[in-house]
Amino acid sequence: MDSAAPIGGGLLINHTSTGSQTAGTVPFHGIYNASKAALASLTEGLRLELAPFGMRVVNLVTGAVRSTSFFDNSPPATLPPGSLYNVAKDEVEKSMSDEHTAADGTEAFAWAEAVVRDLSSHTNPPPWVWRGRHATEVRLASHLPVGATDGIMRKVSGLDAVEQKIKEKGWKQE
């Protein structure tokens, strides 16, 4: 590399998710959450590694966004016949299908406008940009002790119904 060659000025944006954060981890979405957590970790490393070259690296942490085709090519979310979660099949499959995202997410165009505004209104954008429904809540909950949001996640995922049905059936843990 020629020592007179210009360096810097680049912007790298990695698109992660609130699911990458412990407080945003939704049960039954483990593979997705893990992939986004890995990307968030990579983004942090790159942010530091590329800084000497004038590169800015941003972690775009997105919550629920509706009006997208994210789930269009996904197979239906169904539990296998022998699943222990079948005691609350409807509730769990609803969570697995992520129906609530389609209903209560931030409208896609509004999300995109906010992200563009966040990233273009600064000469040095923040290292993390939080956008989408529930992003602020996950950001704040990330400062709470691990487990503080378990009750909310049990309800969102249908695990509260699973637990209740297990109690009703009198099944015992060993």
From TrEMBL:
It comes from the Eukaryota. InterPro entries: NAD(P)-bd_dom_sf (IPR036291), SDR_fam (IPR002347). The keyword rRNA-binding does not apply. Pfam families: adh_short (PF00106). Signal peptide: none annotated. Keywords: Oxidoreductase. Belongs to the short-chain dehydrogenases/reductases (SDR) family. This is IBR finger domain protein. It comes from Apiospora saccharicola.
